[in-house]
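Our preliminary data section would be incomplete without showing what the modeling component actually yields. Below, a chain of 126 amino acids is followed by its predicted structure, encoded as tokens that our downstream tools consume directly.
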Amino acid sequence: MDPGPLAGLRPAGQHEPRTHGAAGARAQAASDTELPQAWAELVSHVATHFGQEDTWMRETGHGQADAHALQHRVVLTLLREGLGLIRNGQLEPVRRMARELGAWFAKHTHAFDAGLALHLRRHALA
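Predicted structure:
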């Protein structure tokens, strides 16, 4: 997966967008016994990533912050619901989510992260 427009803006130790693809791929490839751990790691990774972006948007007064953060909340809620599905033995809906997540991230990156990256670069120059 392309590192996206926010590449190079993350503090040391923060996740790059390309790792979403790797985390999603691990969840897709996981066996039934591995899926709970792989999904939990994916949810944790995404929550950290979204949290960092939400903080940047709040701290810099990004104009699209409300819509962007709403996307984050909706997707994170769905991913967390996947944890409950796994606990109830419903693995197929979670696997479907894992397959669809890559396409969602690609669209989200172009629709929201590109604007955020431009905003952050302008903010850094001010």
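The first helix runs from residue 18 to 29. The chain is about 75% helix and 0% strand. Preliminary results of this kind motivate Aim 1 of the renewal.
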